[in-house]
């Protein structure tokens, strides 16, 4: 059992849990994730480790309530427990001194970007961060990202905070202005990551994306998280979650992400008897 020692709402429908998990906190690295199960009847869902404190033996999990399981998870209270948390899983981010690194987070993707940006900064890189959301109320971790960045750009779709537009706009401005960018890391909606990849490909800038396709066991056994990278099948859970953005088949990934769209729509209007109502 893993006890929730702190719970906070970062934006409407987005929550952060600080969970007591000393063995995971001891081993985890930026870029890795866990798979949790709320109770015996629950499904397994992957969540990125948004932060960790080795001394206190805790990990931070940030999630958005979009379906039955995440709504059930969000209803848990401080000092209640999660039955299973398996991890750390996946390959850790490759952190070293590259030079100037641009870290881009869209929506809930800011959560996994944060520990990676912090690690890049600690390794001696110049970190330029770009975070975006549909509106100012949906922005998360703004203060934390500013603390680990030399420069922070904010964009919102409606212009309610920062620059109006997409996260690729400040990136393109930096490139055109002559910023010597060694690497770009982008995490967020698939369409956002594809847009970043299309921009950086034109300028031959090494770009990584972190993929979060449908995942079940997290060990490569089920094949649910299969993605095409460089015309080869890869499993996001064991080969990733980070991949070279210029080699990812984003079209195929988007098709796979839409496979359960009808079921997801149903979960937004759950019937009585759904596990969310327990």
Describe the structure.
With 278 residues, this protein is α/β, with parallel strands linked by helices. The chain folds into two domains: 88 residues, Elongation Factor Tu (Ef-tu), domain 3 (Beta Barrel), CATH 2.40.30; 158 residues, Rossmann fold. Helix content is 25%, strand content 32%. It is built from eight helices and 16 strands. The strands form three sheets. A seven-stranded antiparallel sheet has the order 6-1-2-5-4-3-7, sandwiched between helices. Strands 11-10-9-8-12-13-16 form a seven-stranded mixed sheet, sandwiched between helices. A hairpin with a 2-residue loop joins strand 14 and strand 15. The model has no long low-confidence stretch (mean pLDDT 89).
The tally of helices reads 8
What is the residue-mean pLDDT, rounded to a whole number? 89
Strands of the biggest beta sheet: in what spatial order? 6-1-2-5-4-3-7
Q: What would CATH call the homologous superfamily of the largest domain?
A: Nucleotide-binding domain of ferredoxin-NADP reductase (FNR) module
The description of the largest β-sheet is: 7 strands, antiparallel
The N- and C-terminal alpha carbons lie at a distance of 19 Å
Categorize the overall geometry: globular
Poorly predicted tracts of residues: none
Into how many domains do the coordinates divide? 2
